[in-house]
Amino acid sequence: MPTARITFINEGRGFGFLRPDSERDPDLFFHASNVVDFDSIVVGDRVQYEVLRDDRRPAGRQAKAVAVQVIGR
């Protein structure tokens, strides 16, 4: 599983972004429903995740992070 660091969280709207450890990959969107224990994550947490592609979304926004799980702080 790829790893990343949480860079932004909007708790009120239930989403955020993470920055993959692979420097070539763009930041990925994630939704609270795809995070194990969303209420406990904070910016800077290290996570592992899976990537889901949705070809119905506009170019550049087709990938999102799912199965996001904290692996360290």
Explain this structure:
The chain is 0% helix and 49% strand. The protein is an all-beta fold. The protein has a single domain (3-72), classed as Nucleic acid-binding proteins (OB fold (Dihydrolipoamide Acetyltransferase, E2P), Beta Barrel), CATH 2.40.50. The protein has a five-stranded mixed barrel with strand order 1-2-3-5-4. A hairpin with a 4-residue loop joins strand 1 and strand 2. The radius of gyration is 11 Å and the shape is globular. It starts with a strand and ends with a strand.
List the helices and strands and how they pair.
Layout: E1 3-10, E2 15-20, E3 28-31, E4 46-53, E5 63-72
Parallel strand pairs: 3-5
Antiparallel strand pairs: 1-2, 1-4, 2-3, 4-5
Q: How many strands appear in the DSSP assignment?
A: 5
Alpha-beta classification:
mainly beta
CATH architecture, by name, is: Beta Barrel
Using the CA coordinates, give the radius of gyration.
Answer: 11 Å
Tell me the CATH topology. OB fold (Dihydrolipoamide Acetyltransferase, E2P)
Residue share in helices?
Answer: under 10%
The stretches of 5 or more residues where confidence is low (pLDDT under 50) are none
Total domain count: 1
Count of DSSP H/I helices: 0
The CATH H-level superfamily is Nucleic acid-binding proteins
Task: Please describe the biggest sheet, giving its number of strands, its sense, and whether it closes into a barrel.
Answer: 5 strands, mixed, barrel
The CATH class designation is Mainly Beta
Q: Identify the overall geometry.
A: globular
Distance between the termini: 18 Å
Which strand order do you get reading across the main beta sheet?
1-2-3-5-4
Mean pLDDT across every amino acid position = 92
The sequence of SSEs as H and E is EEEEE
Protein name: Cold shock CspA family protein
Domain CSD: 1-68
Pfam families: CSD
